[in-house]
Amino acid sequence: MNTPPLSMYLHVPWCVRKCPYCDFNSHRAEEELPEAAYCEELIKDLKQSLEWVQDRPLQSIFIGGGTPSLFSPAAFEKILSQIEAHIPFSDDIEVTMEANPGTAEQQRFKGYRQAGINRLSIGVQSFGNEQLKALGRIHSAEQAEKAMDMARQAGFDNVNLDLMHGLPQQSVAAAKADLQRAIDLKPEHLSWYQLTIEPNTEYFKRPPQLPIDDDLAEIQWQGQNFLAEHGFAQYEVSAYSRGKQSRHNVNYWQFGDYLGLGAGAHSKITREGQVHRFWKTRLPAHYMDENKHFTAGHEVIEGDQLALEFMMNALRLTGSVDLSLFEQRTFLPLSAIRGPLEQLETQNLIVLSNGQLQTTELGQRFLNNTIAAFMPD
Q1: Residue 202 falls within a domain, yes or no?
Q2: Over the stretch 80-115, which tens digit does the pLDDT of each residue have?
Q3: β-pairing, 233-236 with 239-241?
């Protein structure tokens, strides 16, 4: 049986403070983080999860949060060495860590690189100081630029900048100016995506004034063209690269497997013809309680739901997807989605050719409608 590639996600659940738009599993850090204790639990979690590896090497590791850069390089060196002792690494493994410019220090960046982290994702969000204040960020535009300089000096040659648009009262010109400052820093990759108001956030309780729909559409259109002019190829709805795509995220979008470690981390694993999803307990205190199990829930994804989840990921990609992947990764016949595929092709939302599926520009623009065609009745 052709088992999908395997990635790993590590979750560090603490931040200096919670941003008003954030719906991730993050918690305000106390004065002293339980770094050593949490690392020990991650290692225990790893050892309990080895049954799901099935002799596969890790293609990528993504360390997210929260703010992972609150932890020391020594912590990640310990964790990564333990992972490699139990699971083989592919020769060209990609190891990404999210970093907040407000917690960036030159020595730490050098230490992260020496620990085996070879890709950084720096959470800039905006280069407008007023916007950053409204977003609850703890850094300034100048600190973001300095963090990029530190990354280069530390030896990182694969850096993503995380940038949002459609920010409170943001004009088209301001959004484009943000992109220009990001491009000037010469990152290998940009994640550029629209701010959305999610439930269980401060912004949901007290919504800010966002740009009108016409302005949002203009920001998107002008921004995509601007990035293309500067050599950034869009390969997913919000991902643009100059030759170095995020291998970790591509594995998600192609419905590969991933093993999640840490408070609230999710896993999707294929085993014996079934696709499993399980997730760890969310609260850090519960995760570190030795009397509790790490896993909070587990389910087998089947039928229409499995088809939907594959398509939700595949349709985000701008390039073509081999439809044989659908049968390989879901164990379902292509006939299970033939009706919706033909309907979407008639509507010019996708193109089908020689066993390949590709979302059209119109399909990308109305992605939610495109995905809705696969929703179970």
Answers
A1: yes
A2: 999 999 999 999 999 999 998 987 777 899 999 999
A3: antiparallel
